[in-house]
Amino acid sequence: METIESISVPMYQTASIAERDMRILLAGNYQDMHHHFLAPRTICEWVILLCVGGSGWVQLDKKEKIPVKAGEIILLPPEVPHSYGNAENGWSLLWLHCTGETLHALCEQIYPSEILPLPASGIIGLFQQLLEKLRTARGFADVLFAESLLTQILCSLVDYVQTSALSSQQTNLIRMAVQYIETTTDYTISLDFLAEKLGISKYYFIRLFRQYTGHTLMEYLQQVRLRRACSLLGNKDYSIGQVSEILGYSTPYHFSSAFKNCFGISPTQYRKLL
């Protein structure tokens, strides 16, 4: 029997709550829909569809219809006209309308792969749990929990897109580079050095590394150094200057500035929290 459910998520007027970076606006599901058709429309939020049964199609910006089948998840971007539907065979969809800067950043890493096979069967369970939380929400805490489940789903999709774009040989190459970066104490390593170590061109390495990690080499090196900084700062035998020197920063000022940009507090403030 055809079933349509729509769940409207309260706004929560407190500014710090209403303007959160991962926000679900609407949610719901279509069950056993036949001759289902959503007319072309343009809206200002992301739409996420999860096909859990049957098959259908989506259409973006009046281009050719893209077939959709069970076990696929669809991302429809804001401000792009879209429509979707199916024929007589029927389909079942779980769906969300959502917004926020964090959500947009994650979706941008997935799109334009607008239709993806589910990287893990557990995503259906997460999606269903998300809907149940919204369906029975007693307040903001339940809504926030549902939005944390959406974060898990999107992060799984980002990881899938980054790794599936590479062959197993390419993935192994970049994993070797990442392992070297994570274990070396040489903070002057360069693109040329790593590319030569892997036996590939510098420009090929840049492309693979960005696809796998989502970062440039310099960005990734900075993250590794600052994670190590947190560990070193736990040892009170080291001064801030010594930690800076161990990590290869030119001055303690540059180290403190990088640390604060990453974590929001200075190394001195961080150490006081330990």
What is the total domain count? 2
What is the CA–CA distance across the termini? 58 Å
- Encode the helix/strand succession as letters: EHEEEEEEEHEHHHHHHHHH
Rounded Rg: 23 Å
Mean pLDDT: 90
CATH architecture of the largest domain: Sandwich
Secondary-structure content class: alpha+beta
Q: What kind of assembly state do the chains in view correspond to? A: single chain
Q: Determine the number of helices (DSSP H or I, runs of at least 4 residues).
A: 11
CATH homologous superfamily annotation of the largest domain: Regulatory protein AraC
Annotated CATH topology of the largest domain: Jelly Rolls
Written account of the structure:
The chain has helices at about 15-20, 100-110, 120-135, 140-165, 170-185, 190-200, 200-215, 215-235, 240-245, 250-265, 265-274, and strands at about 5-10, 25-35, 35-40, 45-60, 65-70, 70-75, 80-85, 90-100, 115. It has about 270 residues and is α+β, with helices and mostly antiparallel strands. It folds into 2 domains: about 5-165, Sandwich (Jelly Rolls), CATH 2.60.120; about 170-274, Homeodomain-like (Arc Repressor Mutant, subunit A). Strands 1, 2, 3, 4, 5, 6, 7, 8 and 9 form a 9-stranded antiparallel β-sheet that branches. The longest helix has 25 residues, at about 140-165.
